Amino acid sequence: MKTSQKNTEHKSAGPNPPTKGAKPAADAKRPPRPAWLKIGLYAAAALLLLALPKIFPQSYTMGIFCRVLMYAVLAGSLNVINGYSGQFNIGHAGFYCIGAYTEAILATRLGMSFWIALPLAGLMAAIVGLCVALPTLRLRGTYLAITTLGASEIIRL
Hints:
Layout: H1 2-12, H2 35-55, H3 59-84, H4 92-108, H5 114-133, H6 141-156
Helix pairs in contact: 4-5, 4-6
């Protein structure tokens, strides 16, 4: 009788009874963060980014910050295609190049404002990306990687 009571007590505690000072399991759900905390963090980051030109007026320092943010955007785009979808695309540099050159040509030769040239450059890169994507829609794996690498190299030339 005593052994059956001990077994039922042990079963109710689970397969591994909790030890003193044990941390909660990794699969235990954490409470969600409040919405005001997320909004506050995003607002603080936006204010910091807007204040950077006033804090660091030197062109060298601002150039470094611009490159860091630009590479962060490129890394985020690679994360979307390579990380979430699992496809290996190497053509990002070529489409980035098309957008950058389009914006530079519109700004220098046509005297267009940066804020008007920016969406036009993105649209141009999207059109070229669509021209590359339509014939390669069914490719996967190594074939997609080779095709996008080739398209990037053609664009580079």
